[in-house]
Amino acid sequence: MGQPAPRTHSSPWLTIAVLCIGQMMIVLDQNIVNVALPAVQRGIGISADNLVWVVNAYVIPFGGLLLLAGRLGDLIGRKTVFLTGIALFGAASLLCGFATNESSLIAFRFVQGVGGAIASACILGMVATMFSEPRKQAQAIGAYSFASAGGGAVGPLLGGVLTEYLNWHWIFFINAPIGVVLVLVGLRSVPDERGQGLGKGTDFLGALLVTAGMMLLVYTIVDADKAGWGSVQTLVLGPLSLLFLVGFVVRQARVAEPLLPLGLFRSRGLTAANIVQFMMIAGMFGLLFFGTLYVQRVLGYSPLEAGLGFVPIAVVIATVSLGFSARLITRFGQRTMLFSGLVLVVAAFLMLSFARVDGTYAVDFLPASLVMGLGFGMAAPAMMGLGMGAVAPEEAGIASGLFNTTQQIGGAIGLTVLSAFVTARTDSLTESGESEASALLGGYHLAFLLAAGFVLVGLVIGAAMLRTSRPTEQGQSARQVTADRKDVPAL
Fold it and tell me: Which portions of the chain have biased composition (kind: Basic and acidic residues) (predicted)?
């Protein structure tokens, strides 16, 4: 039999609520800032060159620390790591709101990224192991999927509302009281889980290698658009970051107690789910970024109106993830739901590639966004269920950190690649005499087609790697699935 779900001092659904609100707060912060950047620039006089670092100072530590934070959750207890991260995130958010110059804001954003990584690295691991019953487990993962995707969609709206009706400081202040409530409620509701102990995987050199490698890789990617892909900086730091990561992998294969047990990747479920997520998130960032630009720069919507335009996709994701995904997964199986959802996501991007210069929101954007929400709401819970169901409960923290790392790297690489193609296409059309709106739209069309290609590649790889499974098999305990890994036939 599998390991029983951890006990809590209160309703397990209260625990799920605390974890998902924490996840949504962290995801919101990654998107809410973008809308407020012009107001931030005016408010503290930050230079145009350094404005991007209000975003990057958060992204770099966030992407770099997820694996380490996830493993620490397994070793010292996921509750301890989660609540520590939430407290640090809330405190740093308060400091960001009080920042009076660019140096302090960028520094506090870095600390905020550290807190966000520490908190979010363990959330999926706790959500996935809260229930052993398949239906409830699917419902919990559906709630987490909504918190992640819905937070991304609502971020631009909330950022627009707070900036327009209050001021930019409140995009940070809002996190502080939420963080306090989460810590106070979480101390009582989140289960006390004894970690394996720091002796089980305290690989300090490995931790240094993976953290340095991931931070350097994220920095190289997010700054490549400014520095140039062929610049000395990119050509030196890119290989150096990969060298650190290769050194980390080599060390993990040799040490007795690795930080990241490489045996995890023998699970085709975990490996395939991470590959699919990488490709899907690489595409989804295209929707959030270039969809917002299309609505504002081509259709002429204000930032607040553009934010409102993303509410329907959040509503659809919430409806599917929270209301139907568990029943659909139980009825049809995770694999079927994953691939059906990915097909819808590809279709939505193809629909967006036909958006018009003189179009309307109701015709050119809304239908595609609804299909996108339906597809993502179906695919994300199934994808996470397949991945997390393939690891033992004691490895859930590192698997959760791996999922979050894949998401961050996929988003950073996807957006950087899409931006490069959009810029080249837009410049080419402008030089050929196209109007500004037509040139911009031509670039966005290319971004949506490439995003569809990303997701399609993920679909093909997932179909090749994931074995057919019956609905009744979904939701097996992680320990049972792990025990069965040796029976999975080789590709």
Answer: 482-491
